[in-house]
Amino acid sequence: MTTPTVGSPSSSTSTKSPTTQTPTTPSPQTSATATATAAPATAPTSPAPTAPTAADLLDFARAVAADPAVVGELPLDPDGRTWVRLDGPGGSEAWLIGWPPGAETGWHDHGGSYGVFVTAAGELTEQSLSVPLPTEGWRSLELADGVDRQRILPEGKGRAFGRHHVHQVENRSQTTHAVSVHAYYPPLPLIRRYSRKGSTLNLELVELPEEW
User: What's the pTM?
Assistant: First the structure.
């Protein structure tokens, strides 16, 4: 479309108007000399990564647990747990953990992250609470009857859990090491550790990432 100029038929009055009519002042939209300013070029941006789902994390943990080359690289210590960090999917935090006979984690949460774990060798026992607990705002909590759950996870078995999951995991064997794969998203911001006496859960310690 051609931009109209002053005095053209599209911008003037009829031919019956005096020949001495005063020209109108062109607006930026009708000026023939108006120029458009080009927008500065910008580099294309990559789409934001999609957070892995719990199913994604579980698929990853199962695949690692079934890979003897990866599991076999973990050094085992008869006196304590050992661990190696893994590259988890989608920016998640992942670990390969060795459990000597009798090792346990104690009661803890995951700082608001969701996660999974799968037993790669041996057998692990998980004790957990069937209700989500608030992650902040309390130091001592009286648990209701009937909230305790227990799962036995032999080699190849695992589970996913939500953001407010509280549990403890043990290797109850007296003779055999266990190995497991764990993954969390977002990466653990902290871990809260609890002591338990009967139905009372007490906050004892808050661990930050630089401490593990």
Answer: 0.77
